[in-house]
């Protein structure tokens, strides 16, 4: 019996161990498959490659083979990547970040629907995506009575296990067996008209059981694996990120002084990536203690706040670490098990809870415009980057919503502050504070023209400030003075970049 | 003692009766004033005119006089109108619909911040709009122990009474005294980190008391009035509205058949206006019984569903009737008092509750684009119409979110389906079903290009269909195939209208 087989304590389920190829045989062309995984954690490691092989064999034989794939969020090369390279994905939702798949989406070869991460489970349960044929879910183990021990991401697993007609599990021996007890799986949200309040009132509270439930009769097979998650490395915070972080921390201090934030702030949500990580790293040396986290993805920065004692608890739907942070996590897991709570993404991203808890939402953006609209998803208005993820869930419902970005990209050829964003993910109604390394614009309580002056003066890169002022001045002269725009110029910066590779006029 | 004075049962408060002019004397230049009123109901009838006179006198003497005015939603000519004509408004939030004020906003003479109606109270309580100097609130009466009986709109009154340093009440004898007991004033939402679940689990449930609470020491004066609300007349449903209504009702029937809606549907939210009213009128003869309403504004159509027995209860923050419907309401108020529940707008529009109850949200729009983004607020991208109101609260959190509009406006010169909306209030992520008199596009579970084909084929007016297809075809050829656009043409239809008065190429 392998190490992974020992993770299956339920005798009957041990009988269901099959190979990845046998599992792939259960997946047919055209099926909708609900797959586990969130930000490179907790995705299946073996079956996707077997499905990809099956697809390639079918294609070689002149037969169609593609699946409709719905996950928690992004997975990794062994899942999205291998399936995309085999041309095995016809439809994808709600979030992805794989380079091959992204190219297919932007070439029109794969359809993608970008959905708020708090919405996807409800919409699937309600049948808005049709039937779910198979769920393919990684777990860390199975108890003697058949309860599933979540892996490093809970994501949409509750719903996929409930909704799918058949279930394939991957039991991954490389996930720490001591994860048992860390998760808090509230699985009774259901659908209206039978819903009750979700009883969570503190970010660190537990309200349910640590196990995922699955009707054991639906389990069509269990595949054993022993493979690590994506575990991407973080860059050390650079000057750019440190500057953004320092401004946010100053802003927090000011809000505490004004009585608009408690001394230990409010639960922190932090988007994925280096800038977000830098903000959390900055809090390590900041004046705030007894912090709490309530976020989608817990990464290195938040782990270190917990380990240092600055943060008392953190709630997340996925743990996505660098290899070094994963080592620290595994070393301290006995202490961390009570301080980190892994929840379904329908809980971490739930508008009810984000609003109630008064989350401070901090998310990265591709660009913002002078009125505070934010584009989180599209390059030059047409090409999908990754997806909106949970940024809308947090920005809309947060007590304070921040969007951060360096003020320029591509060596200065792209301004992240533009006259009009080329795609709107977060409207002027949902964006409270914009921060670049140039400065911070506090947009609360301000009209569009007041916002425009602030954003241009405080956030835009000096190389673009005059051009933005010129646009705004001429738009004001053209009339329509609530939100002045020149419609035939509003998107011209993006068009210029498409044509010349530079937003600046040469 | 006047009829209105009899409405003040509290002896001490009767001593505080003052004239509108005395009340206006309490308002100084630059003050932030929280004013009651929601969609032409429950706004103060006398003091605004007195403030306007004070402003005019100040201006005549060469002195500045403007107030910052925050309400529930729109008021009426006697409030927004009279103050705007006196140039007495420097800043306005969160929603308005007065023609004079709208012109001032679009001329740059008044600043306006367009805020989700569920957000405004929280942001004011948190201090994001600074101090609130005075609250000016209409009530229907005051009990012997000093509790306030809400008028026909609750709106933001809970928060304005809590937050303002001073309170001026208007007691309006023309509001039906039998309103006492109709409202359900849950006033303990507060701010994080001390929040609890809002215990509402059914649209028609009562969870609190029927009275507004105010610290009596803060009451600086009470003004007696005897004046009716705006009571705008509705147009009888025309063929256009009837067609949109019939399609929505067919869609409901289909969803019930598919098991995606219960036989009595889910609680209905309906935006303001003739099309919304037509949908509700259509339900009068539809196959659905035991309907429930959970909406911001209860208008004629929903009242008649209750009176006919088709709808068992309706929750709203304002009752805004035509004169005829108001008569029916007053005639049947003893029966209606238990079936209609007037709540704070922070409750009617709360994301926690809209999500939990599974509301069906139906809202009007100015325009939608081929990818399903919706503009609810701006004319040709720059000029504010009224504001986003609660449409975002509902669209984002609803179980089903509809946006409706005739397919053309201005005699065909404006297409309501455009290549790209000129302002984004609801993004592609929040719009499930678009309906025009031409047809319905069910966007659920579809990628942007699938949505585009559906919207063009089903919703666009035939006069614009070829031009939309041509745009979409050429955008696809240009690449960027997730959301194909031609950036230098995306807003050209609006620019053409600005230049020629017609979106069509002549």
UniProtKB/TrEMBL annotation, chains A, B:
UniProt binding sites for CoA: 271-275, 366, 386, 390, 410
Limits of the Acetyl-CoA hydrolase/transferase N-terminal domain: 13-219
Family of the protein in this entry: Belongs to the acetyl-CoA hydrolase/transferase family.
Database matches in Gene3D superfamilies: 4-hydroxybutyrate coenzyme like domains, Acetyl-CoA hydrolase/transferase C-terminal domain, Glutaconate Coenzyme A-transferase
Residues at the active site: 296 (5-glutamyl coenzyme a thioester intermediate)
Annotated protein name in UniProt: Propionyl-CoA:succinate CoA transferase
GO MF term (any one): acetate CoA-transferase activity
Coiled-coil stretches: none
Acetyl-CoA hydrolase/transferase C-terminal domain residues: 328-471
Its EC number(s): 2.8.3.-
Species annotation: Kingella potus
Gene: scpC
One GO BP annotation of this record: acetate metabolic process
Annotated keywords: Transferase
Pfam families linked: AcetylCoA_hyd_C, AcetylCoA_hydro
């Amino acid at each position: 019996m392998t190490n992974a087989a020992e993770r299956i304590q339920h005798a009957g389920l041990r009988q269901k161990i099959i190979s990845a190829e046998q599992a792939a045989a259960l997946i047919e062309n055209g099926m909708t498959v609900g797959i586990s995984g969130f930000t490179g954690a907790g995705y299946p490691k073996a079956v996707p490659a077997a499905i990809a092989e099956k697809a390639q064999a079918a294609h070689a034989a002149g037969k169609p083979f593609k699946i409709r794939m719905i996950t928690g969020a992004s997975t990794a090369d062994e899942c999205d990547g291998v399936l995309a390279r085999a041309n095995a994905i016809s439809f994808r939702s709600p979030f992805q970040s794989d380079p091959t798949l992204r190219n297919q989406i932007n070439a029109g070869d794969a359809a993608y629907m970008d959905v708020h991460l708090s919405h996807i489970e409800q919409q699937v349960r309600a049948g808005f995506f049709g039937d779910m044929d198979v769920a393919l879910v990684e777990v860390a183990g199975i108890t003697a009575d058949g309860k599933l021990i979540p892996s490093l991401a809970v994501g949409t697993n509750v719903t996929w296990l409930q909704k799918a007609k058949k279930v394939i599990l991957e039991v991954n021996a490389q996930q720490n067996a001591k994860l048992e007890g860390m998760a808090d799986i509230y699985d009774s949200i259901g659908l209206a008209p039978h819903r009750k309040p979700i009883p969570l009132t503190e970010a660190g509270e537990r309200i349910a059981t640590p196990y995922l439930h699955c009707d054991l009769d639906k389990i069509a097979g269990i595949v054993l694996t022993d493979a690590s998650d994506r575990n991407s490395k973080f860059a050390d915070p650079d000057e750019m990120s440190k500057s953004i972080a320092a401004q946010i921390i100053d802003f927090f201090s000011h809000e505490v002084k004004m009585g608009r934030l408690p001394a230990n702030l409010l639960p922190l949500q932090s988007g994925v990536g280096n800038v977000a990580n830098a903000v959390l790293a900055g809090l390590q040396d900041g004046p705030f203690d007894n912090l709490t986290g309530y976020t989608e993805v817990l990464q290195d920065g938040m782990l270190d706040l917990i380990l240092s004692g600055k943060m008392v608890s953190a709630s997340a739907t996925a743990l996505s670490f660098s290899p070094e942070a994963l080592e620290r996590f595994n070393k301290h897991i006995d202490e961390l098990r009570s301080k980190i709570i892994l929840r379904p993404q329908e809980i971490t991203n739930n508008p009810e809870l984000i609003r109630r808890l008064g989350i401070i939402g901090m998310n990265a953006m591709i660009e913002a415009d002078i009125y505070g609209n934010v584009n989180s998803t599209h390059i030059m208005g047409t090409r999908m980057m990754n997806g909106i993820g949970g940024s809308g869930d947090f920005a809309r419902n947060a007590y304070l919503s921040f969007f951060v970005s360096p003020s320029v990209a591509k060596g200065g050829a792209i301004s992240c502050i533009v006259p009009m964003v080329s795609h709107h993910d977060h409207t002027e109604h949902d964006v409270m504070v914009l921060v670049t390394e140039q400065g911070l614009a506090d947009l609360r309580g301000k009209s569009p023209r007041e916002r425009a002056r602030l954003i241009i003066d405080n956030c835009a890169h000096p190389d673009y400030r005059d051009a933005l002022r010129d646009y705004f001045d001429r738009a004001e002269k053209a009339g329509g003075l609530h939100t002045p725009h020149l419609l035939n110029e509003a998107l011209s910066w993006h068009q210029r970049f498409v044509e010349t590779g530079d937003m600046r006029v040469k």
